[in-house]
Design a protein that fits this description.
4 copies of one chain form a homotetramer. Chain A is mostly helical. The first copy, chain A, has 2 domains: 1-56, Orthogonal Bundle (Arc Repressor Mutant, subunit A); 65-191. Chain A is built from 9 helices and no strands. Chain A has helices at residues 14-30, 37-44, 48-54, 58-81, 86-95, 100-110, 114-144, 151-171, 177-191. In chain A, helix 1 (14-30) packs across helix 2, helix 6 (100-110) crosses helix 7 (114-144) and helix 7 packs across helix 8 (151-171). In chain A, 39% of the residues are buried. Chains in contact: A-B, C-D. The interface between A and B is large, with 58 and 58 residues. Chain A binds a DNA duplex through residues 1, 6-8, 13, 15, 36-38, 46-50, 52-53, 56-58.
Chain lengths: 195, 195, 195, 195
DNA sequence: GATGAATGAGAATTCATTCAT
DNA sequence: AATGAATGAATTCTCATTCAT
């Protein structure tokens, strides 16, 4: 297709992109266990063999999808961290449910596919480091006075609460969510008063 | 779920229990997608047909395991809430990783199996109510002064942070965990000073 | 089927026998590489799944066929060894081409399927021991005078020459075969004169 | 096979040689059934399409490898026959295991691929004729007295015993091998005393 | 001379499920 | 209460081969 580079796995291949998108949709709608070359191919309007041509093993495919998700997530994270209010941006980022269904699937998947696990672990680690670096630069000293909380601790707290709200929301359980969000907002207000 | 429901394979059967245990192990080790009558039977040392005899469909089996897990979780929760220090007990409960791998699998599963989803949703709801009731009775008024946090909000916060620590720990990411735990501990200390 | 025992793999199952026979034919006609559940099933007039039901893996199937061949071979060998002229019987046994095509396939197969290799190795060892025992009892002392040949050495010699004749014959090469057979016959005549 | 045949991929091509070598290794290690353009290409560090470019069909490739093996075998044979002691050289040649794994594969293959079979049959015939010619010139008359053995018969005998030793050795069965070799050595000594 | 893309076929398994006993 | 037999559908993966460039 086209003039561009066309090695297998070339990131420019349209077919490859189609396959990745179809797989993402499939995971989102039916879970990681629904990923099979057949299902993916059907959804992408391609032949199953072609899926194997681009992604010889299912692991390869899943890792590629996880990397794609990681990249998209990175973009959102950077946007949040580079905004005028990085801490609240991060909090919004964690409360954003759009990535969560996928993240949950991949978390579960990581328990069983070592390759996926490694890829996720290293990405999580990098994200955490990036978050901590930005927050530290911004409010490192001020946090120290706050019950001894650190930037690293803060990201864990915000990530945890945000994710809990999204996950439970997915199940239809919402009790206490608004209260928890209000609480975090108040707390951030004390920490970082909006003038 | 009434105890007396007259389904094949009385709930008291030892064989039934064997099957459930084998399934639990399987999910814990290889994920929900690994559950099949064959695999379960092999692990339990039974014939595949027998698994079908007790649990006609895989959904039946998965729901039974999820209910069993829910019951066990309830026991642990009650223990925590009836202890001398219910709030810290709850915090321990949330940080306990023993249920999390399973919970994660079922959370993912819930996205795709409506029956599992309903069962989990109603259980989560009941658990949350129970937690809130106890905490409310204990420190309801004191919480009000705390940035407007409520009992419901508190459970969400503790649940979220605890779960984040467990999930990330499963991936091998631990940065900020100790800090976050220290922070929560300090905060609980201010809220509920141990004499 | 029938009243007899019917565990999977029960040697009495007619279906199992059908599968083994079909596999044997397939190997004989098209080589070990032609063995697949599909091909076997088609030839046996069964469904591929049924082949897997009886022989979960292809190794299982191949080993079963090799054991069956070994048993049949054992019967022929015993017949030869228990005849009035065991040494010449053995020589006939080795020249008999009926087992050779299969034996060749399994020999080649043994290089690549460890399970088959082990099964064949232990059978070959037992056959050799049996041959040596009989010959030793019969003409052990007499052989000693014969250039120092032993019973074990004799079986190797007869087996080798017999097999060479059969293998080359299969290729259509026959030069020197009659000479070699005459030579062995003369030699056996000197060793064991027919009165 | 003329040297100048104008097939795709001149016989002098280094790439062609790489492919043949990779195929040989593959057959030796995993058997003829493991030969596929993919596997060969991977092992040779080439693209599958390139293998097809040189050898349009798998048969073409297998025949080429068999011819190459035949040529190498011819070289060894000539060396043995042109040495100062051609008969013992031939005996060494037959006991040499390095060619046997391949020979066995091709023998099995010959049963199913007519093209391979023809190529092997004519080569075997030529080799036998060459061996007989040399031995005949050397000890033809002397053999006549030896139980009526002929040069042709002798080659069959030596080939058979040598091959038996190598084949059984490959299986791990070695009983009687030393005895058989001693026996042949004694016999050759009587026939062709080393002064 | 070489190669990337694509495809249809088929391999080895695994599975859920049904049925008769 | 339990189980052996059977089956059709899927799943993962490998292959030979073709074609356009």
């Amino acid at each position: 297709m086209a003039i561009a580079a066309r090695r297998i796995g070339a990131e420019t291949s349209a077919t490859r992109a189609q396959i990745l998108t179809a797989t993402e949709e499939l995971i989102r709608e039916e879970g990681y266990a629904a990923v099979s070359s057949r299902r993916v191919a059907t959804r992408a309007g391609l032949k199953p063999s072609l899926v194997h041509y681009y992604f010889p093993t299912t692991d390869d495919l899943l890792i590629a999808v996880s990397l794609k998700g990681a990249e998209e997530s990175d973009v959102q994270l950077e946007e949040a961290l580079l905004s005028s209010d990085p801490v609240r941006g991060l909090w919004q980022f964690f409360k954003d449910s759009s990535r969560t269904a996928m993240a949950l699937e991949f978390l579960a998947l990581a328990n069983h596919r070592p390759a996926v696990r490694e890829s996720m672990a290293s990405h999580s680690y990098e994200m955490r480091r990036r978050q901590v670096a930005v927050i530290d630069r911004l409010i490192g000293e001020r946090l120290a006075g706050e019950d001894g909380c650190t930037s690293a601790g803060l990201t864990v707290v915000l990530a945890g609460i945000g994710r809990a709200i999204v996950l439970e929301g997915g199940l239809g359980v919402t009790e206490g969510h608004q209260d928890a969000m209000d609480f975090v907002d108040h707390w951030l207000e004390r920490l970082l008063p909006k003038e």
